[in-house]
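Design job #97: recover the sequence.
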């Protein structure tokens, strides 16, 4: 009986540690980040939708059409649909969804826009579709399973996607995931999970617990800084933290990555 109690105690203890340790690490890793601001325009033509701890971004393409950069964690995309409605738009206004990367807190909402093609950098297509799993410390705890997403177009580093009259520049910033992307549109540089803003106004690298290689992420951000002109970046946006103004936070980060 005593031996049984010890075994039960060990199993319960191990389960608690397995759950508690990641929760504590997640809370600590977000303690210094600047809060997300939902429902506001980042720049004219790009606004943020807040879904709890994650953001999605809506890009105005003109003529009542929009593109999404990420689609949030809610499979019914309720917050995005509500924000579109507030601006006089319906779900079918969404012409395309560009994923910053294949993690499900950025892609689950794709299910709510079945007519919109989903695009992602080639190296994250399998992750987005659920044919490959995440190799981050947290991601290794889960098995990959099909997400129902079919990526219709694999994007490539350096290309410019044109939707109507809107040009969206695509940059590969591998590290958080192998196919992490940054998008530059209407002067907003959307970095997804490749970086975060701090309450101090500085930028930090990807969170290690969710990332496959923070060293690669830092190198990617440094390289990205060298490819951008300060005149073309008005704001930097992050998925799990608030925006920072101008390119300077990225340039400062790159000077001391
Ligand atoms: Zn992620």
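Job complete. Output follows.
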């Amino acid at each position: 009986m005593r031996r049984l109690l010890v075994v039960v105690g060990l199993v319960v203890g191990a389960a608690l540690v397995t759950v508690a340790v990641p929760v504590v690490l997640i809370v600590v890793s977000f303690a210094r980040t600047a809060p997300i601001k939902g429902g506001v325009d980042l720049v004219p033509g790009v606004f943020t939708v807040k879904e709890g701890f994650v953001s999605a971004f809506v890009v105005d393409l003109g003529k009542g059409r929009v593109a999404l950069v990420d689609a949030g964690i809610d499979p019914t995309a309720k917050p995005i649909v509500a924000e579109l409605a507030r601006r006089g738009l319906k779900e079918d206004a969404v012409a395309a969804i560009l994923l910053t990367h294949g993690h499900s807190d950025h892609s689950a909402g794709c299910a709510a826009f079945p007519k919109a093609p989903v695009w992602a950098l080639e190296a994250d297509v399998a992750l987005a579709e659920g044919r490959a799993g995440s190799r981050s410390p947290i991601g290794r705890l889960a098995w990959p399973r099909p997400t129902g997403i079919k990526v219709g177009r694999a994007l490539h580093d350096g290309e410019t996607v044109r939707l109507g009259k809107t040009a969206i520049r695509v940059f590969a910033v591998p590290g958080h995931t192998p196919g992490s992307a940054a998008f530059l549109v209407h002067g907003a540089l959307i970095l997804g999970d490749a970086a975060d803003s701090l309450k101090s106004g500085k930028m930090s690298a990807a969170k290690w617990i969710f990332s496959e290689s923070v060293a690669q992420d830092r190198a990617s951000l440094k390289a990205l800084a060298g490819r951008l002109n300060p005149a073309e970046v008005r704001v930097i946006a992050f998925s799990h933290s608030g925006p920072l103004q101008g390119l300077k936070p990225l340039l400062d980060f790159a000077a001391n990555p």
